[in-house]
């Protein structure tokens, strides 16, 4: 494939934007080479500035669950834009989307909309601290909850890809309040709770992790966390930025039948526009300003274009719950295909998958936490990534990211992808 124009655009971008990108993982540092520049996208496909067509397995890192430029979403945004793009004054649509989200997600009474997943998680933790009167939080190594200070402690995703899971700029004062646990290790969490009795406001986690590849909670892990939280008087925060409205209509809470105390959303909830949200039962949410003392605000929060995209996306999923089944079936099909061709090629691998989140790790050990994920052979991943790109398949440009399937993918696209993996794996 030719990437001449992308390359020129990247060179120009680097003069004016740090690293040429507005979010680090886009720069391809983890896999080497240069990023492609997207010109447009439709359904399951990306079209780059050089005229290449690629099958997209990142779906804007999750949001485009129904495919790119999904007509009802685009129509809703265009219609809204003609009536003004921001007011900073309430609109009816904010209540409509809040009402719909509350009806879809179990165990929440109220929801507050923000502009990103980072804001959602940052605000959720502040609310948990304000509600409990405690300062510390427990997070898991390899989980990513956005780039706010408290979370850049052994963070996953781009932070670990770029070798800065603990970013300079985060003060010791902030870092000391974030305690680190191993994913899928309840006894480790219990030790931390015991050693910091009465000081922990919340445990935050991705109920299915997607920022160290896809990591599935082992049986009893989420249940065990719920129990520990109840015993120690700690709030359980599910960061459902990836899993919300993707793994099920009601997200991981519904899928695993576990009640979280606060839930964070992003990605799908905005239908591809910048939206995040956090939600909880009244008892907790009523602590938020203007009802309560915990402050949180946003000039563009509840923005009409963003709400139009989000409301349309959630309505589509609510009205067509068969989408979740279809995504499950498509991803299971891809999973089976990958197993076959990787076995045929005698490649060492482990695949983790839940619903439409899937990742291939080039190790034969089980991948259950950050440590085991980091054992994957990154050189093999790089070759795999570039091989697939050459074949016309766009995978996440880092081994520490989950792939996200979208429902616009056809079985022909999946077959094409499986054949591409067969070709690429043969040369690994
Ligand atoms: N939480 C999780 C689980 C995420 O995957 C992400 C982003 N990948 C975030 C929070 C942060 O969201 P945003 O990039 O919208 O700030």
Summarize the structure in words.
The chain has 428 residues and is of the alpha/beta class. The chain has 2 domains: 4-69 and 323-426, Aspartate Aminotransferase, domain 1, CATH 3.90.1150; 71-319, 3-Layer(aba) Sandwich (Aspartate Aminotransferase, domain 2). Helices cover 39% and strands 14% of the residues. The protein is built from 15 helices and 14 strands. The chain has helices at residues 4-16, 71-81, 92-104, 117-132, 158-161, 172-175, 186-195, 221-232, 251-256, 282-285, 304-319, 322-344, 370-374, 378-391, 411-426; strands at residues 38-42, 45-48, 53-56, 110-114, 136-140, 178-181, 200-205, 235-239, 262-265, 276-280, 350-354, 357-361, 393-394, 403-404. The strands form 3 sheets. A 7-stranded mixed sheet has the order 4-10-9-8-7-5-6, sandwiched between helices. Strands 1-2-3-13 form a 4-stranded mixed sheet. Bound molecules: 4'-deoxy-4'-aminopyridoxal-5'-phosphate. Residues 61, 116-118, 121, 144-146, 157, 206, 210-211, 239, 241-242, 266, 276 line the site of 4'-deoxy-4'-aminopyridoxal-5'-phosphate (PMP).
């Amino acid at each position: 494939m030719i990437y001449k124009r992308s390359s020129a655009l990247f060179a120009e971008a680097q003069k004016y934007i740090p690293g040429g990108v507005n979010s680090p993982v886009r720069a391809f540092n983890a896999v080497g080479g240069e990023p492609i520049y997207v010109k447009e996208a439709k359904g399951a496909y990306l079209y780059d500035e050089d005229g290449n067509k690629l099958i997209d397995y990142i779906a804007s890192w999750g949001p485009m669950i129904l495919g790119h430029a999904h007509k009802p979403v685009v129509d809703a945004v265009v219609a809204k834009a003609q009536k003004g793009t921001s007011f900073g004054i309430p609109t009816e649509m904010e209540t409509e989307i809040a009402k719909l989200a509350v009806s879809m997600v179990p165990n929440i009474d109220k929801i507050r909309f923000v502009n990103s997943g980072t804001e959602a998680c940052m605000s959720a933790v502040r609310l948990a601290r304000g509600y409990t009167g405690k300062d510390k939080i427990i997070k898991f190594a390899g989980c990513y909850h956005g780039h706010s200070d408290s979370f850049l402690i052994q963070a996953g995703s781009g932070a670990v890809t770029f070798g800065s899971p603990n970013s300079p700029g985060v003060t010791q004062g902030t870092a000391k309040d974030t305690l680190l646990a191993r994913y899928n290790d309840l006894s480790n969490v219990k030790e931390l709770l015991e050693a910091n009795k009465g000081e922990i406001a919340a445990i935050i986690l991705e109920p299915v992790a997607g920022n160290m590849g896809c990591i599935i909670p082992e049986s009893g892990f989420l249940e065990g966390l719920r129990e520990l939280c109840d015993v120690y008087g700690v709030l359980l925060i599910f960061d459902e930025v990836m899993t919300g409205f993707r793994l099920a209509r009601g997200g991981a809470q519904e899928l695993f039948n576990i009640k979280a105390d606060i839930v964070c959303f992003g990605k799908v909830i905005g239908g591809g526009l910048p939206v995040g949200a956090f939600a909880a039962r009244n008892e907790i949410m009523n602590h938020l300003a203007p009802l309560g003392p915990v402050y949180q605000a946003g000039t563009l929060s509840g923005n009409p274009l963003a709400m139009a995209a989000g409301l349309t996306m959630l309505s589509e999923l609510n009205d067509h719950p068969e989408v979740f089944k279809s995504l499950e079936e498509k991803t299971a099909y891809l999973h089976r295909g990958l197993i076959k061709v990787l076995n045929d090629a005698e490649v060492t691998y482990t695949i983790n998958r839940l619903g439409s989140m899937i990742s291939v790790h080039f190790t034969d050990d089980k991948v259950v936490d950050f440590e085991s994920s980091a054992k994957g052979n990154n050189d093999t991943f790089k070759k795999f990534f570039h091989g697939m790109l050459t074949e016309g398949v766009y995978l996440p440009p880092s081994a520490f990211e989950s792939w996200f399937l979208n429902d616009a993918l056809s079985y022909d696209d999946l077959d094409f992808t499986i054949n591409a993996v067969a070709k690429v794996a043969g040369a690994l």
